[in-house]
Amino acid sequence: MVRGASMGARQASNLEGAAVRLRAVEESDLPLLVRWINDPDVRHWLHHSDRPDATVESVRGRFGLTVERFPNLVWMIETIEERPVGHVGLLQVDPHHKRAELAISIGEKECWSRGYGTDAIRTVLRHGFEDLGLRRVDLHTDADNARGIRCYEKCGFVREGVMRKRRLRYGKPLDMVLMAVLRDEWQVDSEQ
Length: 192
Fold this sequence. Notes:
The protein is of the alpha+beta class. The chain has helices at residues 30-38, 40-43, 56-69, 116-131, 146-154, 183-191, and strands at residues 15-16, 20-24, 74-79, 84-94, 99-106, 136-142, 158-169, 172-182.
């Protein structure tokens, strides 16, 4: 990791966790990302359930814009054996307010509930708080995403509120939960 880097500086491409390695998204990852996004079981938990199927071009645009605007703040999640299992990112990084939004998806369903997401989140939080100087990382998730909420709480996130009927899933309004972790809380949690 890059120690003491400012938020405007280019960040390390690779981050190492206990069970995962995070690396920059590459062009060769696009077909895999498309497959994950278009898988109905994965898509159910994404904010894409009512959108047309993803294509390489649409994913290139989405990830290309993010990677270009915030270099290396979106990573592929790989196992230690270098098998890609998902992606994670710090989005909408605000250097003035020192905050960002976490986004994560484990696309390989057989890797759900195996700790890869938890390790990826902890690795990204360490990078955000220690290297980027963030003071807050937040996220929003579907209110019925019990597995995700347990993972986020395990990583130190606290529920801050419910956004009623925030999005549509298959045309039906769905509540979302707003969660956040503050650097001070994370430092205490990571020391235990």
